Amino acid sequence: MSHQLDDQLAAVSRAQHDESGFPSAYFFAPMSNPPSGGTAPVAARPPAADLGPGPAPESNAWTGAEKAVFRFAFLYFFLQVVPLDWKFYRDIVAHWAGVSLGDLFRLTHYTPRFFDGPDTFANWTVVAAIAAVGTVGWGAVDRNRAEYNTLYYWLRVLVRYRLAAALLGYGFLKLFPMQAPLPSLSHLNTHYGDLSDWKIFALSLGIVPSYQSFLGLVEILGAALLLGRRTASTGAFLVLTFLGNVFLSNLAYEGGEYVYSCYLITLGLLVLWYDLARLNRLLTLELPTRPNHFRLVLPAGWPRAGQRVAKAAFVLLFVGLYGVKAYAAYQQGTYHYPTAPGLPGAAGLYNVREFRLAGEVRPYSATDPERWQDVVLEHWATLSVRSNQPVALDPSNTETIPALDTERSFEYAGAAGRHYYGYTLAPDGQTLTLRNRNPHENRRPLVLRLGRPDARTITLTGHDEQGRALYVVLEKRNKKYLLEEASKTGRRGGLRL
């Protein structure tokens, strides 16, 4: 009899689970008639369902190791995120009356610097050293603290908004495709081997503005998700996949923003870390997971109102004002090239039909370092000369938004084979003053007499940097460019060059 009763109880236990192994929502104890036949039916009590290891019990106390790691992380990221350099605030006050797109971009691009020159990981080392020293002192005076949940919350807020500002800074430059501009005429007439890896990447991105806008939209979407507490981890995951590609692109093409992109990756990892263990337990291990119950409730009054005002000010500054200024700059043209207009109707590629130096006619030669091979006149006031004379390569490859034409280096940075001159035309309309744009080439200005005997011919008369007599005859070529011709016919139209 006892064996029969055990079999019935085992059947009850199996019946309480559905086919997936989870406890069934409905279960009933079977009615059994024991062999004696005189006793009442027995209702079996269902045993507890075996779901495997449940979520760990909540504990507010942190271990000593957790508190030490947090103290270091808090100080490290606080120093990385919050500007403590007084010159940063001096520049804000100095430019606030006429704040420009470049001023706002510099706000979003801040990182602490302890050394001159381009940003390097050496600056991180200094920050880590300061944080390590601070961790030791903090631990000595606050060793009895049970947890740092509130400080952890505020650290995530700082990092979330700092990362969102950086993404908005670059996102709007891509949404209105300006970060990577279309190639200039000089670029289109530069040998492929004369361009640096970074320059090739930038120009390749510039010829697909719609894709560039899509990348900007991804950055802006990630920033918007980071602004919400509930969507911050989702935004961090999206941003990390994007920034990982940016970091690898900088390494592969020798870009100058690999340190900054790695900096943003560390911020994204900190934001995601808060929910990473829970996500791993729920999605990877497929175990019951306890949700996050911590929520900071500010007292009513000015603290809660101040929080709303701060968030509204952030959105107004980095979404409203910055977005409007980015669109206005896009309408005016890219900030990478000079804005001063060039000679009317002169833009194009020119063959050097005649070249005289010190009264001597120099025939065309690909090896003569002094003889001009061809000349490009841009739509703006830039004249570039291709010759065999070595070019002092400008290594600038970081993102800036310069206000003055003389500070705009994109056209000659990372490009060899051509010498770039900015020019001004005297009021008489016949005197050109050429100044080398490349600061690494210290050359005297050229003052040349301009002649335009017909619409396709330009003559230049004067003296070169060494004072020798110079006479050049330029003849315009009727050259077609694939980018321009394809834009006229569309993607599916016929094309003949």
TrEMBL record:
The chain crosses the membrane at residues 121-141, 161-180, 200-227, 234-252, 258-276, 312-330. It comes from the Bacteria. Residues 43-53 have a biased composition (Low complexity). Keywords: Membrane, Transmembrane, Transmembrane helix. Residues 37-57 are annotated as: Disordered. The keyword Membrane applies. This is DoxX family protein. It comes from Hymenobacter bucti. The lineage of its organism: Bacteria, Pseudomonadati, Bacteroidota, Cytophagia, Cytophagales.
